Amino acid sequence: MLPGGALDPFLSSAEDALPAPGRGHYLERRNPVIKLLAVVLVALAVTFLFDPVTPAVIFLLTLAVGRWGGGLSLRALLRPLAIFLLAGFAILVANLLFNKDNAVSPALVSIGPFKVTVAALWAAGSLWFRLLCFASLSLVFVRTTPPQDLILSLVHQLRLSYKAAYGTMVGYRMLPLLQNDYITIRAAQRVRGVGEKGGVWHIWSRTRRYALPLLTGAVRRAGRVAVAMDARAFGAFPARTYRRRMVVRKGDLLFVAATVVVVAAVLLASWRLGIARFTVT
User: Could you state, in order of their start, the residue ranges of all structural domains in the chain?
Assistant: First the structure.
């Protein structure tokens, strides 16, 4: 809400402006900044792990939290991670060819001049599961965090300027509109008999046909949004009032504490079993 009682133009509906601490699943009720802090802490812990087992355990725990804490289906969790299967294969091939310990490590399988060594599998597994951890942490955070709540939390908890925060929010909400515009433009060109030919040489032609109308539509929409923001005196005041404020509750602090305890327990157990490695060698 603007000073003077004007309604906030960036709330899409009255429901968005009402406090809803009991709505949604457990992760959806957590403060976005506090949840982001938990993600950063876990990511930092995974960064300094150089064995495949410990990141794999944290990856499975992340999936479990997203499934039962965020209400996400296994399909919604695993489908976006399918691309990382290809990344894991590329990492494995790179280690088979260039790992410095291949010459001294025992071979498990020999394929012509190449041999699959323990060192290559260990290094590839470490990189792959760390990559999966980062991807799954980001996925669970994005899928369980309403964008408007994140913006409000950045403003209220991190004291981010509302001008930068809401400007970012407007740009973020335009991305799905660009996708819809692309689908509409593609359908319109097909109706007019403009076919799509396959092959690398036709990529530039397709890009040129779609880029100009997409850019034109984006510029027009940005102009209308700018006029609407200016008409509502956006940025004219140093501070704003809000119909709903994001606050840090006891449950948020308990969530961060539980995250730290669980990750520390996994690291300690892995270290005591002689599995965890915190150095490359």
Answer: 24-145+248-272, 157-231
